[in-house]
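Project channel, design review

CF: Before we commit to the Stakelama marina constructs, I'd like one complete example in the thread so the newer folks can see what an input/output pair looks like. Taking Cupin-like domain-containing protein.
RD: sounds good, go ahead.
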Amino acid sequence: MAEADPGIFSAMSRVPEIAVAGASELDVHLREADRPFVVRGLVKDWPLVEAGQRSGREARDYIVRRRRDVPFTVSVGAPESGGRLFYDEAMAMNFRMARGKLPEVFAQIDAAEGRDDAPPIYLASIDMFEFFSGLHEENHVDLGDRRCIASIWMGTRTRIAAHNDFPDNLACVAVGKRRFTLFPREQFRNLYLGPVDNTPAGRAVSMVDFHRPDFDKHPRFREALKHAQVAELDAGDALYIPSMWWHHVEGLSPFNVLVNYWWRETPRWMGQPQDALNHAMMAIRDLPEDEKRHWRDMFDYYVFENDESVVAHIPEKGRSVLSPLTAESASRIRSFLLRQLSR
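CF: and here is what came back for Cupin-like domain-containing protein:
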């Protein structure tokens, strides 16, 4: 992997660290926190962590014994990419997607281990329940009544461009070392985001190369760096990433495994804000300026302000979706939107 400019990371603030005595104390911190924090050694007793401490190959053997006999999706980059899974000069992906059984994928990692010309190999966001039997039961964090998506990320040395996710995220390093570089939500203008529809993994990513930032091309990135926080995690450590915080992720070891948990505090029947933004780009962005001003006022009125004056003149039983949303009214809106979009 190409070496990063050490000055970029050494000048950053460190993500604060906390200590927790158990699941209930962790729960309190997760409910109260609005900024990232690190918990050292949170998962150090996992069997997977212990296997990885012995060697990457032992960790792979441990994982393989618990896999289901199904194809896995894997990203394979070019050796010259330095592990950066990103765009090429034509804005196509600089990696290819393949499918294979996990023993076959790990055999490729075994064969390439230690080679300077080894391609980056990355298995991203693999559902631990769907693709494994017993792995989650033996290696998990007690997150109480949260309904989490539990995923495992496995691969060689990689760099994943800064992006954000809608759910809250607890990321646990199980094997190897990782570096996370985080930015508050509002820094999106200074991260030079790429396309929203042509993305490496479903979310718009920063176009800045964090290892070699081009400040002539991306001058506002200097401002983003003033707000950046960095966390370098060893196996057993965990990092909480609040909803919508931007994070650049690097796997620093020859073999790396991360287990993460996503959850959202809002009801699952609510829509995805990104879908609304995408539709607004299609329906509103290219309108004449005076019409856009009107629709901005309408969004403020119905969505962002949404005070009692919006519905005070409508009988309560007749307010329909203007009333506070429920699962039923959200379903009516979804059905209405589908009908409108299919016209």
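RD: helpful, thanks. The CA atoms of residues 87 and 170 lie 27 Å apart.
CF: The chain has a mean pLDDT of 95.
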